Amino acid sequence: MSTQFSDTEVSLGTALRQIIDSIEGEQITLRDLLSLIGEQGLLLFCIVLTLPFMLPVSIPGVSTVFGLVIILIGVSLVLNRLPWLPARLMDRSISNEHLIPTLEKGVQLFQRMERWMKPRLIKVTTGAFANRLNGLALTAAGVLLLFPLSFVPFSNTLPAVAILLFALGMLQRDGYFIIGGYVALLATVIYFVGLALLVILGGQSLFHLNF
User: If pLDDT is split at 50, 70 and 90, which confidence band does 205 have?
Assistant: First the structure.
């Protein structure tokens, strides 16, 4: 069965507002959150999952879970199949005390961004090759988000920005956002390589000091 990543029928800000108004109780599972998103689709789900890493509110300890879900959605794009989302991930609960402020900030963010979004550079956003390539890039950004390095500045923010731009670009058919996603992904890779080099050089310096 092929993937079905639908365009949003309402603005992103309105879609988030509808989700907020539908949330009840103290906690919500990822499965229930996806159910609330409904026809707006899996790309909007990816967008929602990036918000905690980009805004001045956070949901503790979710980078691994959210990263895995985004990876599986990205893989489904590459394979042109509906994603397999295991129950263990989808039954993970999120505190609404953290989630709702995050979505509220997202509404404000998208209300500012939507004036700049429109279909353009269509070859970058449509077609089997573009979908697979963009899905592969989305998967790579999800892998980088997966790393439990929240104590390192920007280690979650940079891949989250890449995921957000890819998902927005695919959802709104905006090639400029897709290109921005690749730039953010490249910046993330460079940043992570720089961190790795610093760790290696620091380890070598300690070794030489001890010997």
Answer: low
